[in-house]
Design brief:
Two copies of one chain form a homodimer. Chain A is built from 14 helices and 22 strands. With about 575 residues, the first copy, chain A, is an alpha+beta fold. The first copy, chain A, starts with 18 loop residues before the first strand and ends with a helix. The relative contact order of chain A is 0.11. Chains A, B: Pfam families: tRNA-synt_2 (PF00152), tRNA_anti-codon (PF01336).
Chain lengths: ~575, ~575
């Protein structure tokens, strides 16, 4: 059976007069009495059909999403629509066939839909018929092909690593897979191909990459999926600098190719600087609102009110002293939502003419103010918010405040601005309150900086690692490190993470063994593909870039998974 | 730290005089007293270094697989080796550094190794350093990139389907994944993305593909892996013919691009013809040895000896009547290994001059023989083996005999000959002895041929489906079908497979639901990437084309998976 001679998007003016066969889904029906206009849609586009009343009368039940096939002739359209490729023509139908009828769809299948998230997930196949979702999937395909070809041309080879792997208790929770043949034993699904890509480097593969599914058994979070896709890369014989240079080139290439945007050279700051200046490890550089921790360099004895405060922090909104009281109070109001108390904040408008006005006049003299402004190197024209508190907890809210302020000021509305940032020298270890011991900041295979190794015994929290994260517009889209290739150092790190010799052997014995055969220096990086896409498109919801996402509690409500198994299956697996 | 200015494969005559830094693994050491020659190897190649005795004496412990870094100068080599790219030069070393020592490797790391399979699996990272395995991985990368670009250019988009899916009891055994958050419930790992790709078609995606991991919980078989990679494709608005044409073009493209081989047009025969002519659904067309079932058209009453036999089959080896007695008896000897008894076989040499000689003279007259030869349309020059038996079981060994014979005749030795074959019209259902009911031959979503649907009630085993397999050189490398897009037919098939209305709803409810919204006609195919590679290279062992394969019982003996979990983890999962 011939379903079509053309698709619904390819016919245009030059095809006028042609006889065609088309198949597509009914998008719209307009009944003008003697003539009926029907728009049909397929993957490629939308086209208008004209039916005489006679032709259609046996099919009076036609409705939206019916799949129909028509024979007809391309004719010139009277009222042209230049917004779509087929807008200058229409099809005069001579024969109609219903290929498959449709019941009434649960939501509107157009660019704007009335479907709520639950309904769109349940009928995902209908949601995919909508341009916004379909185009996201096409974009995802396009970016994946570009990435593969780019890396391949640059000497990387894609190697598939196994998905049924061994379970290691380090890191986040893994999903496990019971073995039927080896009763009582389990495989594990990888959180990343970390150790396998390291083994590939040890195996002499020079540059590896893989676009690969990874799995994390995490509790509900709207910006994460339990299965997600990683662009995973590893290189041999490199140090941090070579990785940063190459992958800056890589990200620039993607942005140029996909968005036609030429990115500026990436900013690069240390983790410690990021925390001081922005109060976060994922600063958004799009808006010039700096955070200054003036706790240590304000002469507290000169400010009675500051004496008992644990910290003092300034958020400096550059060139915004022209903001009105109303605007400032709406900012203060929004800040209060973060449970910052009124008494913990005051503001200063430092005008271009070097005069200033400020709130909480009772607490500070003008002289005080001049000192503060000097201390923080504020410039005329700045708008300052100053926070102080007895409670150290307030401090961790500061980054959120910075973003709240920027939202109030509408600084973020332009989604076409991208400000990538490398954060380097992240800590090797971090103190874990729950386990009362140090744990890896990234993972246990991250190389410490050579000059910091001596801190291992006394100040393990101060050791910096050869690691890096890539942040774009406040979102971490990738991260990696130089790995340990020295068996002794790897054993030392395992020991400091609290692993016994027996545990090291049983869980990482193969790695330690592999390091004995001339393992090369190597390092790599992994990017979250779902995140990268959502940042590229300036949209927050990664679900819109995944064909069949799970909901926030890890359910696929379309196919109903997870679900109960039959007793027989459980028995077979001995669970 | 600078590890290298060049890799070990790129330097040549034109670089003579250059100062270089190289890093690589020691492949060979030759100590000539005052001078020491060391070959180092990396991903790109191998190069010879010359050390003075003085330079090396602090490193007297150097051995194979040590990773070293050298500074040196490119000089002309006296005894040139034109087999390798760097064979006309060598490096006069001025500085040596050991980057990482190596203990003695468990097997020889050269093209030919003394490592047995177990050892090569356990130290897979060392096996990958060997060219044969490394080159297979590079080939796999290359073919994957070619496939992706080809399909992409032909309008297919790659869409990732989920790996944590719902469990359905149909088909082979699936692996399951317990959910921690939804206690007692399980995800399942896909055996193929079958239903998701169908949902994509229903979602209006015109052409989909995916190179994707699939999982099957099968018992040990050396030619299968529990996780394997599929090239999965699906198209809308097509019938069988369009799929065969496009994917013949696809396979031809791959062979041309990867092997520079222009394949002949593919042969296409029905399943029923394949069984009659070759006694198998995966015939190897490289050798012209036909099987003829003459049971029905030999006049048994004229051959006393045949009267009580259940079947008579002829294997006709074309143009081989010149084979000597010795050769024929070595064939007969090999045939006996298949437990065919001596009394169940005789042979005929039908010479070019139309005379013939034959074994078992007591049983047949020359007149008898002339009749047989006439009946099977044998030509002068043929060598015939005729099998007859009371036991029907012997019949199923015939295909193996055909292959045994061809092996004896060395017909298969040329691995550069490829004979692709489409098998079409496979049965929709097959009788399952164990379950005493019909089951799907492919899967329950395969469309029956319209003209056969009326057989459903009385002769379900006779229904042909709109399906096809691609066989190359006797190996099934792909298969697929047109799917059912009509809700009524899908329900009917489910019913005939013994599913109750309740079961249909709970297991395939989402599919039936999706078919209600104007599902398009669609069909597709899936190729086994591992198999395709092993056929392309003419090698049987698919493990050689997988970076980290499991052994025949599904174990990864390198990382030791599957393995036991800690009690705490099991508790968390409620299993």
């Amino acid at each position: 059976m011939l379903y079509r001679t053309h698709n619904c998007g390819e016919l245009c003016k030059k095809d006028i007069g042609k006889k065609v066969v088309l198949s597509g889904w009914i998008q719209k029906i307009r009944n003008l009495g003697s003539l009926i206009f029907i728009d049909i849609r397929d993957y490629f586009g939308i086209i208008q059909l004209i039916f005489s009343k006679n032709l259609i009368q046996n099919h009076f039940n036609l409705g939206k999403e019916f799949l129909i096939k028509v024979n007809g002739k391309v004719v010139k359209k009277k009222s042209k629509n230049y917004n779509i490729s087929t807008g200058e023509i229409e099809i005069l139908v001579s024969k109609l066939e219903i290929l498959n009828p449709s019941i009434s769809p649960p939501f509107i299948i157009e660019d704007k839909t009335d479907g709520d998230e639950e309904s769109r997930m349940k009928y995902r196949y209908l949601d995919i018929r909508r341009n916004p979702i379909k185009n996201n999937l096409i974009l995802r395909h396009k970016i994946s092909i570009e990435i593969r070809n780019f890396l391949s041309k640059n000497g990387f080879i894609e190697i598939e690593t196994p998905l049924l792997i061994n379970h290691t208790p380090e890191g986040a929770r893994s999903f496990v897979v019971p073995s039927r043949i080896h009763s009582g034993k389990f495989y594990s699904l990888p959180q990343s191909p970390q150790l396998f890509k390291q083994l590939l480097m040890i195996g002499g593969i020079d540059k590896y990459f893989q676009i690969v599914k990874c799995f994390r058994d995490e509790d509900s979070r709207s910006d994460r999926q339990i299965e997600f896709t990683q662009i995973d890369c590893e290189m041999s014989f490199v140090e941090v600098n070579e990785i940063l240079i190459f992958f800056e080139y890589f990200i620039k290439y993607i942005f140029k190719k996909i968005k036609n945007i030429q990115l500026e050279p990436f900013t690069c700051i240390t983790y410690s600087d990021a925390m001081t200046k922005y109060g976060t490890e994922t600063p958004d550089l799009r808006f010039v609102i700096k955070i200054l921790d003036i706790n240590n360099f304000i002469p507290k004895n000169e400010f009675e009110y500051f004496q008992k405060k644990k910290f003092i922090i300034v958020i400096n909104v550059l060139k915004c002293s022209h903001y009105t009281y109303d605007q400032i109070y709406s900012i203060i109001k929004s800040i209060k939502k973060s449970k910052i108390e009124d008494k913990e904040i005051f503001w200063v408008k430092f005008f271009p003419d070097k005069t200033f006005i400020y709130s909480k006049k009772k607490l500070f003299t003008r002289e005080n103010l001049v000192k503060i402004i000097k201390n923080i190197n504020s410039n005329p024209g700045d708008l300052l918010f100053i926070f102080f508190s007895k409670k150290i907890q307030t401090k961790i809210k500061i980054n959120k405040l910075r973003i709240d302020i920027s939202n109030c000021l509408n600084v973020l509305k332009n989604y076409q601005i991208f400000k990538p940032l490398w954060i380097i020298d992240l800590p090797l270890l971090e103190w874990n309150e729950k386990f009362q011991r140090y744990r890896s900041f990234h993972h246990p295979f991250t190389s410490p900086k050579k000059e910091d190794i001596h801190l291992l015994e006394k100040f393990p929290g101060d050791i910096r690692s050869k690691s890096y994260d890539l942040i774009i517009n406040g979102v971490e889209i990738g991260g990696g490190s130089i790995r340990i290739h020295d068996k002794k150092i790897q054993n030392l790190i395992f020991k400091h993470l609290g692993l016994s010799i027996k545990e090291i052997k049983s869980e990482f014995g193969f790695l330690i063994k592999a390091l004995e055969y001339g393992a090369p220096p190597h390092g790599g990086i992994a990017f979250g593909l779902d995140r990268l896409l959502s940042v590229l498109e300036g949209k927050g919801n990664i679900k819109d870039f995944i064909a069949f996402p799970k909901n926030n509690s890890g359910k696929d409500i379309m196919v109903n998974s997870p679900s109960f198994l039959k007793e027989k299956k459980l028995k077979e697996l001995n669970i």
